[in-house]
Each structure stands twice: as structure tokens, then as C-alpha cells.
Amino acid sequence: MSTSELDFILVPLPTPTEEGVNGRPDEHANGRLHAKPPAPQPQVRSMSLLREQRERLREGVLAGRRPAVDRQHALGKRTARERIDLLLDEGSFTEIDMYRRHQAHGLRIEEQRPHTDGVITGSGTIHGRRVFLYAQDFTLFGGSLGDAHASKIHKVMDLAISTGSPFIGLNDSGGARIQEGAMSLNGYGGIFQRNVQASGVIPQISVVLGPCAGGAAYSTALADFTFMVRDTAQIYLTGPDVVEAVSGQRVTHAELGGAEVHGGRSGVATFVHDDEESCLEDVRYLVSMLPGNNLDLPPSAPSRDAATDVRPRLAEIVPVEPNKSYDMRQVVAELVDDGDFLELHENWAPNVICVLARIDGDVVGVVGNQPMVMAGVLDVAAAQKAARFVRFCDAFSIPLVTLVDVPGFLPGTDQEHAGIIRHGAKLLYAYCEATVPRIQVILRKAYGGAYIVMDSRSIGTDLSLAWPTNEIAVMGAEGAVNVIFRRELAAAADPAELRSELVAEYSEQLVHPHYAAERGLVDDVIDPVQTRSAVARGLAMLRDKRKQPPQRKHGNVPL
Q1: pTM for the whole thing?
Q2: What value, to the nearest 5°, has the Cα angle with vertex 302 and ends 296 and 308?
Q3: Which SUPFAM superfamilies match (predicted)?
Q4: Residue 35 — very low, low, confident or very high, per pLDDT cuts 50/70/90?
């Protein structure tokens, strides 16, 4: 090796410092060459670098964790973001708090701090109309609710209230995040408080697409409408394991709080669907008929010339004989635009029907007895169902049309002991309190207290119409004769013949078609085929109705 080569290798180096040359670790200390390659030069801070880093983070958050996403799909469930895409108009979603992470410590929860904290919040449009929403993400912490998770929901609920926009919650959560203790419970309390503040101010819709356990169940009960999907959705306060530990009773998730249970027995679920796609499509349909808030009117569609519309089939659907059944939904289909309506609680308390529809382009709420089920009597569940619907319609300026064919309240010790008086009073209270336009149509039977409760003239209906088949009385003719003429019938040589004569006499004197109209309890006896036109004209007449409730803090509903 030549001297010149040696001088080249041992060229003097800068004196090393504790931090190395230029602040970098020194790899040539004391002039010795190390095998370790030079440290990479740090990237110079720049806008392009910051934008690139932001985009990588954002893409990772949006993509989610692939194994968890695959597990969600394997359960037959879509991810939170996929659900939002189905619900909202394409490209309309604006996310809020994407980068939120929990700040909790203990029980090793600090080792997992994913962005979004298991819930996606924001705003978008449905048919061009603004809504706010959250969608719980079961792929992160099982969608469980902690402090940051709850704070995101609080923020978006506050925005919905302040902007006067409908609020939608897509629920898929195992409940409170146990590792965060009392802060999880505090988070639920904040949601419930806002549910109550928003009640009657903005429409609230709860959509259950997976488990909705523990405290979360109360938010669904406080919402105006609750949707559930069969096989995947459950709502309960305490799960099957706790039920078995406390009572010894073994029960599955579906048996305890599945869609069929809440759709048909408890009445918690307003709508039940077979899959997420049809469920979210019906949420969109529902929103299309609701106002944004209590100061707005429901969205209108073009007029359908209903004021001159004659429906001959209405004279065929309803039998003249008071004891023969028929489907009240067929009457509703003839009454509303295009026969199109959305029925609430279809499988719970089916002896009364509650639907949202349009008549001549304007949204109405229709309540009707259902003669196909228990002859259309009112019972505990039916009174609860109709009362809540009436109060919702009144809160959001939706006129009410009540179709009456009711033989009375269901008699029996079970009903009396279950509080039929108290629950029937709820329906009475709801109608008496309502200030929206109200039209009553009496098709056939209207007996006893049930007639009064079904929006009669005496409790404030604005317009009462009746078919020629109407029978308004304390009770049916046969029952009345059996009570009034009990002794005469017992002593008669031919009780059957005497009863027939007395029934005819009672009907002719007290239950003839114009009896109530002659006394001002019915405004008009109409031809059944003209029912749609008569109701449409009545709604047009009442469109500018203004009625201020009395000044008070609030009434005391017989809960």
C-alpha cells in the first residue's frame, strides 16, 4: 500500500462530541472506521411531508383493521362506514372527530388507543335534507362506550339540536367500557340527558344493527323510532349470563332481547327488518316524511287532486254487519296517496294501527282500530302504542286522521289489573293535548269510553265524519237490551222474539246513522266512496289552525 493511499484512509476527522458531529451520533470516533452505515438523514419538515403523513394516517383510519373487518362481515354485519354509505346521500358525509383517542389508563387499556375510539360521528344528507348521526364501530373495542366515545356522541347531538336537524344513532355495541369505570356511566348519562332535551324538538331515530346492551338500551327507548334487524340485533339491560346467574334461567341473546321479542312483545322496536340494506332504506323513507324540527312543517309532495278523488272500493271493503271483520289497512290504502304508507309497530298491539302517509301530498298520521285483530278493541298495549304516536305527530305538526271501528275496551281482570284505566288515560290525554288538525272518521261501531278516547268531538277533534254504517252508543244494541230489559226478558214467554223486537227498537231510536249528527257530535254523514276527498278537503280547511296550549310548566301524563 502506498503512502498516498494510507494518507487518504487516515485523513483527520472532526473532533467528536458527546452527541457526535453536527448533533448526530459519531460513527468515526477517534478516527476509527466502523462497519455501521451512516444514519439516514432526517426528512426536512415541509408541507408536502405533512400532507403525506396526514394522508397515510387518514387512509389507515378509514380502512380499519382487516382481520376485525373480516370478522364483522362473517357475522353478517356491515362495518360502521359501510352503513353510513348506505344511509346517506352519496358523497354527503362530513366526519367529525376522526382522530379522537381515549386518554384512559389502567388495566393495560393505554396499550390500545385507536383513532375514532370505536364510534364514527358526523353529518350528511338524506334526500338532500340535513341529518346528524353516529355509527358505533364494533371492530374497535366491540363498540364499547368510554369517555372519548361518549364525548363524540355528545358533540354531534348538540350540533343536531342547535341546527334543528334529525338525529340518527346506528348502534352496535357491547355496552359500557369496563376499563373506564364510572366515566363510561357518566358518558351514558350525557347521552340520555340530550335525548330528553331533543325530545319533541328534533326527530330521533335509533337503529340497532348488533348488540345494544346495558345503559345503551335506554337511548333506544328514548328515541322516537327504533329499527332492529333480525338475527343480528339485540337490546337488553342485562345479558343472558347475568340472567342465568341471578335467576337460574337459561336464555339466548335472541330470546332475551332479539328483534322478534321487541317487535312483537315489548314494543321497544318500531320497525323490524330482515337485513341492514332494507332497514337503512326504510330509515331514509321515514326521514323523507319528517320535518327537520318542531318549528318546520313536514316536507310536502305535489298535490294529487285528492279533493275530487272518489274511491268506489271503500264501499266494498267494510261489511255492513258490525260483527264481520275486515282489514283496516285496506281502508288506509284507499285513503292515502298511491296506497303508500309506513306502518309503525306492525306486530305489537296489532288491534290498533298507526301509520305515516300522505294525503294530497301532505304528511298525515293515521290511527285506526283493526277489526281483524280482537275485533279492534282497545287494550293496554294498543292504548300505549296509539298514545305515543299521537304525541309524536302533535310535537312535529303532523295532522291526525282517526279511523274508528271500536267495540270498546277489552274487559277482564287481566286488563284491569294491568292498569287499563291508567293506560287508556294516556291515549285520552294525548288526544286532548294535541293542537294539530284532527279529523275523526267513524266507519261502524263506536261504543262506550273507547268512542270518546278515539278522538271524539267531546275531546276536541276538529272535524267528525261518519259513514251511514256508524253506530255511536254506550254499547251495542244487543248488550244494551240485555241490561235494560233483563227482567222483561227473563219473564217473557219467547225471550228471543222479544229481544229481537227490543234490539230493533233500540237501534231505530238511539243508533240510527244520523242520531249523532242531529246532536252535533258528527259534522257530516258521508258516502264511503268520498272519504278520501272529504278528508283531503278537511285537512285543507284546517291547514292554518292555530291553537296555543295553556301556560304551564308541563302536564302530568298518567305514565
Answers
A1: 0.89
A2: 115
A3: ClpP/crotonase
A4: low
- Per the residue annotation, which of 118, 174, 214, 239 is the catalytic one? 214
Separation of alpha carbons 246 and 544, rounded Å? 57
The yes-or-no answer on residue 368 being catalytic is no
- For residue 3, the surrounding DSSP H or E stretch is helix 3-9
pLDDT at residue 1 is higher than 80: no
Q: Do 64-288 and 306-470+513-542 share a fold? A: yes
How high is the pLDDT of residue 440?
98
4: pLDDT strictly greater than 80 = no
Q: Does residue 14 surpass a pLDDT of 60? A: no
For the chain, the C-alpha Rg in angstroms (whole number) is 33
Q: Looking at per-residue confidence, does 1 or 294 come out higher? A: 294
Counting Cα atoms < 13 Å in the Cβ hemisphere of 140 gives 26
Whether pLDDT at 10 is above 90: no
Structural domain boundaries in the chain = 64-288, 306-470+513-542
Please give, one letter per residue, the 3-state secondary structure of 182-239.
Answer: HHHHHHHHHHHHHHHHHCCCCCEEEEEEEEEECCHHHHHHHCCEEEEECCCCEEECCC
Q: Which of the residue ranges 224-233, 254-263, 498-507 would you say has the lowest mean pLDDT? A: 498-507
Question: Residue 115's CB: how many other CB atoms inside 10 A?
Answer: 16
Q: Is 214 a catalytic residue?
A: yes
Q: Are the CB atoms for 178 and 214 separated by under 8 Å? A: no
Query: How far is it between the farthest Cα atoms of the chain?
Result: 149
| 449 tagged catalytic | yes
Nearest one of 404, 497, 488, 520 to 451, comparing CA atoms: 404
User: CA-to-CA distance for 380 and 558, rounded, in angstroms?
Assistant: 13
Q: Exposed e or buried b for every residue in 49-63, given b needs 16+ CB within 10 A?
A: eeeeeeeeeeeebee
Match 350528511 to its residue by C-alpha cell: 124
Class of residue 348 by CB neighbours under 10 A (exposed 0-12, middle 13-18, buried 19+): buried
Which pLDDT score, from 0 to 100, does residue 9 have? Answer: 31
Catalytic residue among 124, 215, 267, 365: 215
Mean pLDDT in residue range 143-152: 96
Q: Rounded distance, CA 557 to CA 559, Å?
A: 6
The CATH code of the domain at 64-288 is 3.90.226.10
User: DSSP secondary-structure letter at 466?
Assistant: E
- What is the predicted pLDDT for the residue at 118? 96
β-strand pairing of 204-213 with 167-173: parallel
Residue 173 pairs in a beta bridge with 212
Cβ contacts of 316 within 8 Å, gap of 6 or more:
none
Rounded alpha-carbon distances, angstroms, from residue 278 to 165, 225, 230, 285: 23, 16, 11, 10
**In the predicted structure, residue 31 carries a pLDDT above the cut 60:** no
CATH superfamily label, 306-470+513-542: 2-enoyl-CoA Hydratase; Chain A, domain 1 (3.90.226.10)
Residue type, 187: G
Bridge pairing between strands 119-126 and 341-344: unpaired
Closest to 460 in 3D by CA, of 440, 442, 484: 440
H/E element holding 329? helix 328-335
Q: Is 256 in contact with 243 (CB distance < 8 Å)?
A: yes
What pairing do the DSSP bridges indicate for beta strands 463-466 and 524-525? parallel
Q: What is the distance between the alpha carbons of residues 482 and 113, in angstroms, rounded to a whole number?
A: 75
